[in-house]
Amino acid sequence: MSDRRPVLRITFLGKGEAALDGSPLAFPYQKVGVLLFALAEARSLSRRAIRERLWGENSERAAANMRNALSALKRLLPEGFIVASPGSDRVAIAPDVTIVSDLDEINERGVTRDTVVRLARPFLEELNAKKVEAPWAEERRAHYRDRLRQVLVRKEEKAAHEEREYWRAWVEAVEGPGFSRTAPSLPLLVRMEERDGLLAFFCGQRAENGRARCSFAALLGEEGSGKSFLASDILGRRADEGVLCLRARLTESEGNDRASLKALLKGITGEHPAEDFQLPPFYLQYLDAAFRNVPDDGTTGRHALPLVDLNPYLLGRIFALLLAQALPPDRREVFLLLEDIHWGEHLIPIFLRGLFENARVPISVLATSYLESKEALELALSPLGTTVRRHTVVLDALTASQSEALCRAFLPDHPFSAEDLASIHKHTGGRPFLLREFLRHYGIEGGGRSVAQSLRETEQRRRLSLSEDEAKLLDCLAAFPGEAPFEILTKLSEMSDTTVIDLYERLHRKGVVYEKKSGDSFSILFRHALLKRQIREAMPRLKWWNLNKHLVALFTTDAYRDMGRRDLPVLAHNAGDSMTELAARIQDLKVHFEVSHELFPKLSDRELLSAARTTNDTSLTKGYIDEAQELLEKLYRSNGRTPELVRLDRRLMTIKGGFLRWNGDYGSAFACLEEALKLALREPKREEVVVSVLEQLCYIGIQKDDPQTLAFYAPLFYRETLKAHLHPSIGMGLRFLAILNGMEGRYEAASRLAKMSSRLFESLETQGEGYTLGVVAAVHTFGDIALYEGRHEEALGHYLQCIKLCEAKGFYRGMGLQLAKAAWCAVRIGQVEESRQYLLFAQPLFDGFQSQRGVSLCGGEIVFALGALYDLRDGQTARAMDKLRSAQELSAIMKKPLWNAIFSCIKATLKECHPGVTDALLPQTASHYRDKAGKLFSQLGLRGERDACEQLVAAMGGSLPGGENRV
User: Fold this and answer.
1) Where are the domains of the chain?
2) What is the CA radius of gyration of the chain?
3) What's the angle, vertex CA 734, arms to CA 736 and CA 842, rounded to 5?
4) Which CATH class is domain 1-166?
5) 3-state class (DSSP) for residue 367
6) Rounded distance, CA 336 to CA 344, Å?
């Protein structure tokens, strides 16, 4: 070495860098650089210590690797720089070398507003957990983090009053779990007011009387506004306070799916199965059915069988009960973080109501969402009144001064001009995510580039340092509405599997994308939704159109039709293919209608799987119909009445007629369906389309309990199904004929037809297609026939068989009706306690019914009315009145004659057994309700129910307050 003392300048914090006498050192491979960093920090190390720290073992292989790295380092540096004689056990940097490092700045003089961000970076942050030397790096990170914390504490203690808040924020950032890499801690400096407001809100959870209440806070903002980081920071601080913290993030593709709640369930139960918790048996069964086929990563396997109809309110209630038992003695409350709940607009608000209304321990919820979700959240939670504290924080875009503060904090050594700062603020739009991404790119790749040049790179499809193939793959990925299945992505990008995998690995390392397993395959998603939006906005319109067109072509093939069913309407719209969009919307609407509005649709188990929705809300149906109608009229105006459009019009008209029938507008339903039937009869291949219209006309007769209507259309329906060889529809036709014969009193013929229907569906199952609903429908019809004849014990057996069939598949959709009828039959034969057990089983299915629609409500008025009768017998007057109100509300919604007849009979019993108590809700006399029930039973031909009112009074005791028996 020369007489002049060499200067080695080392940067340990953040990305490790080294320069000798002002010239950067380029290491031949990473381990050589790590060896120099280790020697520079310690000045001298034993060979054994080097082997154990950097190679994780003290072996011959580690010794050979160390010798190779040491030789490479000696060749890189001047002679005599590294002192490592063969006979010595120690390796050192020569004593005449001056080492200057950023570690020396971690003291009260060195830590200033200008240097604190740089000095707060982790020690050699590129050495992640996958590296062999990670344990050594983690130990040094903890050491220097603690050293920095002590300096910051002293700075806070000595600072002037107006400076203390700034240094306190840095102390909290370094101490908190959110402290990790360079950029994430920076937004706290411009979001401290919002953060402190949220912490104050949750800290004020305990009311004046000392009882803790539940709290809900909404953190709203646009994509990239910093919601996720701020929420994560709050979560970490709440955990430090001794609160049990759980987290779930909803995605675009599974926001309304039960999979989005799997992370919460896993966090609550931990390694224990749900069976270890003291829950009612039905709740355990429901949880098992709801999450049986959801893997631990929260995804839904493509071939799973989700036959459970998700009741968000019921899940909220079950989770509340689980939380009450899961809360450890050393934790005083529960904190839930639900991110991106705008993707679960039909799930999360109802789930939260069930959670809060049944909470037994203090529960705090912080939800992040778009600003557009504010009104929907307020509407969903308004029934809770003052029982839940509510708070809303809106993250506005950063101001120019805030953007400047972050720029100078992130790159303290860069001389930003006023023009640079103005350009940065304009192009990032005041979004912390975009600003952070730009600064990270500029700090790493900037070099001699100007701010304007780097901004152009960021703006033009966020290329950053992307290759042409990487940019092409991201364009293809951005075309998907949700996640991108790997096999479809390879076809769209026209790249081989290995190429796509290689590109994914490179993009994943850059923090742009990540993968998610889905059954036996996997999908690729953007790390942040704003990245997708930026790429879409910058993509040429012709390319955007072309990518969507190719996806439409793929998803309309038989091989990928099921995979793309949910996304096809959006893709067709983006591709400008209005005809395909309309056909896809009507097909989607048809499946939605069958699943949501029909108790026993003729769907196979496989079809239910591919069409399964999580929250089948019939209130959405009208909006879907209106959207399709608007698009149809637009196509009529542009294309005229083409044969294809007329066919689509007829399909939509059939669904519209069914919807009108469901809502009790039978006149309009008849007119709509008759017009659809005229169009269907004109089609060349008419059998199948005629069947779909006749099916809805038959349902009108069934819903009205009208044998005349059913007698006209059921034989036609059955004949057309035979002509078209539609086997599931043939089974349905046989059941329609069985129902008709039961209504007309021909019970033997009805039983024979129901048996034929059951056998047909069972034979279809042996051929590979499971038809659970078809078999259950036939058995249910057996029960109805026995009920019509007055054979209540036999009817009870059939209804219980239906319940067992549904339970075996985890299929609770519509089971409430079977339980309601089972409870009615049981009390009719004197099995009072058994009847009560069926009601207890059914009650959870109707919990939160005000927020539910569809077939799940069937039979609810019977369950609530009988429940009120039992509660009054037990002296639970307030609870009984609540149930009676619910029964009346459901009766007005469902309008089913048979159910209203049974409800009238229960009303008469309530007036007989508990006069005066129910007068506010039941103003008429007992004889009025008894006569009404008798009239309805006679009209329906239920001869076995003529003595129902008297027998029900006798079964329930019929005693008055004075002890007089009214029987």
Assistant:
1) 1-166, 196-394, 400-459, 468-491+498-507+524-576, 581-789, 843-955
2) 35
3) 60
4) mainly alpha
5) strand
6) 16
